[in-house]
């Protein structure tokens, strides 16, 4: 196996007027390592390389990036999955402002997450111990609660690229449904009311880029469809 | 909640429903037209004019015209709010589209009930 050609998006706002792509050569010694491991090896060649990482096992959601055109977590993506013709192109998550190299400003993403009020709301009297759920009620949260907010889905969504200030995006909407589907939450009506304008939810065109890239295998498009069903049965 | 005053139904939910229902009507109308043309290979003016002189066909056609008007407005409004970032340009585009839809709709009514 020859050395791997890695092309990385570089931008340091303090020294560069425009971003550029930097070429690196990497000898993986024939091992199928994760993209994050490759990045760590590159950082030893050039310590000015900036990227986010923490748990290195797909739990923290820090190292979301665009690898050969597809968003994903570098720590759980083996080279064999993304490298084509011995070439790998790494770019920051699309559509968000770049702070430096592969580090993006997630502000607008978190703002949309905040807009769906991602916490349990219940106006009934608090029980002494805890609010109980039946196994069936708890089952409804499967495929929703696992989201780690890595932003791979929202930054793969053209609707989010064009209107990140108005469209909640797949990650936020998956969480919106997580609380709509929760038997313990009583703010269903208010939650639905905030989503019925033409942008917050309905800017979703159902192209399912979010489903294609989600490193946790979740399905935001289905959650959006469920919210639409709830809105429709509420309003017709 | 995002405020909007230029979309058709003032709500994303109603726009979404209008888009789906109008699409179904347009699909039925299109299939009907294709079938009609297939079953009348040597179509002449008298037969064509006879079809459109019947009240049900005029109602069906007007329903299709109104559907296409609503469908086009919801669709093009969405396109304009996606891609036209400058408010003045966006409003100008929306005005032109709205005017065109209005003209075509009135013209369609005139064709259906005209001489």
What report would you give on this structure?
The complex is a heterodimer of chains A (236) and B (115). Helices cover 31% and strands 14% of the residues of chain A. Chain A has 236 residues and is an alpha+beta fold. Chain A folds into two domains: 1-102, Ubiquitin-like (UB roll); 104-233, Fumarate Reductase Iron-sulfur Protein, Chain B, domain 2 (Orthogonal Bundle), CATH 1.10.1060.10. In chain A, the strands form two sheets. In chain A, strands 2-1-5-3-4 form a five-stranded mixed sheet, with helices on one face. In chain A, strand 6 and strand 7 (103-104) form a beta hairpin. In chain A, helix 3 runs parallel beside helix 6 (169-180) and helix 6 (169-180) crosses helix 9. The longest helix of chain A is centred in the C-terminal third of the chain and has 16 residues, at 220-235. Chain B is mainly alpha-helical and 115 residues long. Chain B has a single domain (12-114), classed as Fumarate reductase/succinate dehydrogenase, transmembrane subunit (3 helical TM bundles of succinate and fumarate reductases, Up-down Bundle). Chain B has four helices and no strands. In chain B, helix 1 packs across helix 3 and helix 3 (55-83) packs antiparallel against helix 4 (87-113). The chains are: A alpha+beta (236), B mainly alpha (115). Chain A binds chain B through residues 159, 162-163, 166, 193-194, 196-203, 228, 231-232, 235-236, and chain B through 1-4, 7, 11-13, 15-17, 78, 81-83.
Offer a few descriptive terms.
heterodimer; A: alpha+beta; Ubiquitin-like (UB roll); Fumarate Reductase Iron-sulfur Protein, Chain B, domain 2; 2 domains; 9 helices; 7 strands; 31% helix; B: mainly alpha
